[in-house]
Write the structure tokens for this entry.
Amino acid sequence: MLQLTAPAGRLRRALTEPLLPVAALALLAVAAAALDATVLCWAAVGALAGFALSGSV
């Protein structure tokens, strides 16, 4: 089995951490709701739901 070195392991964990995409989608949904952009808001909420249901979280 391939062993990752410490920097490569940290980089891989940082790239696969779901916090960044979830935070970005949540901010997009809130900003779209504030701008009264209903379609964009629901698209962001749908993306959050799909991300959560995909097993990525």
